[in-house]
Amino acid sequence: MTGKESWRPDIFARRRAALEVRSRVMRAVRAFFEAEGFTEVDTPCLQVSPGLEPHLKAFATRLEDPWGGPPQTLYLHTSPEFAMKKLLVAGMTRIFQTAKVFRNGERSATHSPEFTMLEWYRAGGSLDDMMDDTQSLVRACARSAGASHLVSGTRRCDPFAPWHRLSLAEAFFTHCGIDVLATAPDPWRPDADALKAEAARIGVSTSPSDRWDDVFFKILLDRIEPHLGDGQPVILHSYPVSLAALARPSPSDPRVAERFEAYACGLELCNAFGELTDAAEQRRRFTADMDVKQALYGERYPLDEDFLTALAAGMPDCAGNALGLDRLVMLVAGTGRIADTLWLEVADCGG
Q1: 76: domain CATH number?
Q2: Contact criterion met (CB below 8 Å) for 332 and 21
Q3: How many domains does the chain have?
Q4: CB 75 within 8 A of CB 50
Q5: Do the beta carbons of residue 1 and residue 339 sit within 8 Å?
Q6: Is 112 in contact with 339 (CB distance < 8 Å)?
Q7: Domain-embedded: residue 334
Q8: 332 with 145: CB under 8 angstroms?
Q9: What is the pLDDT of residues 84-96, one digit of tens each?
């Protein structure tokens, strides 16, 4: 299928089974969070700032002023994170959302430029709570669909087996023989040359312009991710603090952040944080990320000053998680393409 004419009965019939799984998973998600005492929320897709990860590309649009004022540039969000955290400041304590999110330039068997993200937050929650939530939620979704395993091609993963918890440092040493934290003696000024030497030793190619985090992700994607989640899901935790994004540093080891990702059949399912609540530090990180984006791509996105003001006003200690719902459906249904989990592909809507 190319994305064109997926409304045709003969083509649509091929995805009916996966779409039935999708409906069951959606029901299971809502039942899970209702049982846990969460409130479902619905925040705007149009935002001043789309999300500030340097490599994400957003869709921009213009908001016209009906009273004759100048138009405003807004963006379709890459995540509902900023808006949901404002609700935590407003006093909400357990919230979840299934949001359409948008990332330009992302299209493959496991990516779509428009997809559904499940995001949830627990005020007073910990990263361990997020790990427990993720394990229980994935099991509930598989059970609702009558699936004993998550499947991708020939790979199988049993979500009902014990989930393996593995730190990034352990993963780099186990699969590559690299002491990755030793290449970052100053967490905010990691040694790119030291990690490039390790990459060369194991046969991972780099370029002179690569920064430390570029090399880190080349090794992760090439030598570690393919091994994660065979047989049993894996939670990969304790990211180097320079890759903390919106996560707080670990109180037990300042070299790493309270961040994890869960994997099944070699596919990343989610990205979770013990959330940073320091507005000044968050502003510093946002600015640094936009400096990187400017250097790499010649553009930068505006900061959400309302979000930073809310953070300074007092966001409670909390933990949050963002899970790719279409990708989970793909694994539960055992289909090899994320497009098979969508009612219509993006290309059908004017492409």
Answers
A1: 3.30.930.10
A2: yes
A3: 1
A4: yes
A5: yes
A6: yes
A7: yes
A8: yes
A9: 999 999 999 999 9
The residue to which tokens 């357990």 are assigned: 94
- 182 Cβ partners below 8 Å, 6+ apart? 194
Hey, is 222 helix, strand or coil?
helix
Paired sense of beta strands 234-237 and 164-167, if any: parallel
Residue 329 · residue 15 · CB < 8 Å:
no
177-to-194, 253, 262 alpha-carbon distances in Å: 14, 21, 22
Q: What is the per-residue pLDDT across 300-325, written as a single tens digit (0 to 9) for each? A: 999 999 999 999 999 999 999 999 99
CA 268/CA 320 separation, integer angstroms: 16
Neighbours of 268 (CB within 10 A): 18
Cα four-point dihedral sign 171, 173, 179, 180: negative
| Distance (Å, whole) CA 302 – CA 305 | 9
**In terms of residue numbers, what domain contains 246?**
9-163+232-348
pTM for the model: 0.94
